[in-house]
Amino acid sequence: MEQQLLKGPGKLLDTQGNLTQAGWAPHQVLDCNLEDSHFYKLKFMQSMRIKVWDYYAITTPTHFFSFTVSDIGYLGMVFAYVIEFATGKYEEQTLTIPFAAGVKIPRNSSEGESLYIGGGKTLRFNVEGEKRTLFVRWPGFGKTSLNADVEFTVPAEQESMVIVIPIKGKRFYYNRKINCMAAKGWVEYQDKRHNIEPETCLGNLDWGRGVWEYDSFWVWSSASGFLEDKRRIGLNLGFGFGDTSAATENCFILDGKVHKLGKINYTYNNQDFKAPWTMSCPDGRLELVFTPFFERVAKTDLKVLRSEVHQMFGKYNGTVVTDDGKKIVIKDLVGWSEEHNARW
pLDDT tens-digit profile of 38-75? Predict the structure, then answer.
């Protein structure tokens, strides 16, 4: 399939709320003008269906740390979780905030501040130039506290997966995923400080903005790590919602450059998520086996709002082929694959 490249600069939506383009780009080129969304006759109802979030994650040799600030229209969802790879110890806390009081989300992915302050807790994600800072103070996270002070570096030339996916009825998803962000700082958890060093630790950003169908489903696979020769390698794969005829979100990232992929065939067992998953491209550019070692299950049931995520952490093994035809061997790359069903 031919992958359509987004052209810019420009706006995501026209004045009638229609997408101006669909496709992908290695950088954000469209202004996220959600104020022009128009899919209900009553204008004040628009904001209740718009969903925005910033999800940051850090993969270290021993742990996975994740922090999210989101506004799903009628609720704010702020959550964090920690996984210790060797033992499988896992802790997660979620704050459900009516009408997203105390939540602030910026317009675009290239600048601004995502913020939640409430109940003595603070999550602040700030973007300024090539630097992204993550500041977290979460007292009462488990038996102690979860605190973080981390700086991510994303050079202007570093590429990422940006995609616009149409969903029927003027609905859409605008997404940027940045893999392999150099990370430096610390995370304090259970009275132990974990140093974050760019030689061994990498960050991910899932920046999402959109208007979804009430019933939604997707599969997402991701990783940020190192090859045996120390080059940085990232994966971003998935399928599910929307019309991906203009472009898929499938790619791998090698030393800051996106290598775009088309369709990927998935095989996995949703009755046994811990069984190995396989991903393959019909053109042979990706052949991977994902072997899970940990299952994170996150369920929310607020009647009107329901969500169930099975996020599997494991190791990827296999091969990918670059745009210029070079085969890259992936060995024991730690990452995740998830299935998400939502009514929201």
Answer: 877 777 677 778 999 999 999 999 999 999 999 998 88
Domain boundaries, the chain: 10-343
Q: Which amino acid is at 8?
A: G
Prediction pTM value? 0.96
Which tokens go with 251? Answer: 């790619």
Please tell me the distance from the alpha carbon of residue 250 to that of residue 258, in angstroms, as a whole number.
Answer: 10
R_g (Cα) of the chain, nearest Å: 19
User: What percent of the chain lies above the pLDDT cut of 70?
Assistant: 98
Please tell me the distance from the alpha carbon of residue 201 to that of residue 115, in angstroms, as a whole number.
24
Is the pLDDT at 303 greater than 90? The verdict is: no
CA distance 306 to 299: 8
The answer to whether 157 touches 168, Cβ cutoff 8 Å, is no
Which residues contact residue 342 at a Cβ distance below 8 angstroms, ignoring those fewer than 6 apart?
Answer: 212, 215, 216, 217, 306, 307, 308
Dist CA 34 CA 11 (whole Å) = 10
Residue 248: left if φ>0, alpha if ψ -120 to 50, beta else—which one? beta
Whole-angstrom distance between the N-terminal and C-terminal Cα of the chain? 31
Q: pLDDT (tens digit, 9 = 90+) per residue, 145-158?
A: 999 999 999 999 99
Kind of pairing between the strands at 144-153 and 171-189? antiparallel
Q: Looking at the predicted structure, is the pLDDT value of residue 340 above 70?
A: yes
The first and second tokens of residue 291, run together, are 């072997």
Over 80: is that where the pLDDT of 31 sits? Answer: yes
For tokens 């628009």, what's the residue?
A: 46
The partner residues of 77 in beta bridges, in order of sequence, read 70, 96
- CA nearest 59: which of 143, 171, 183, 229? 183
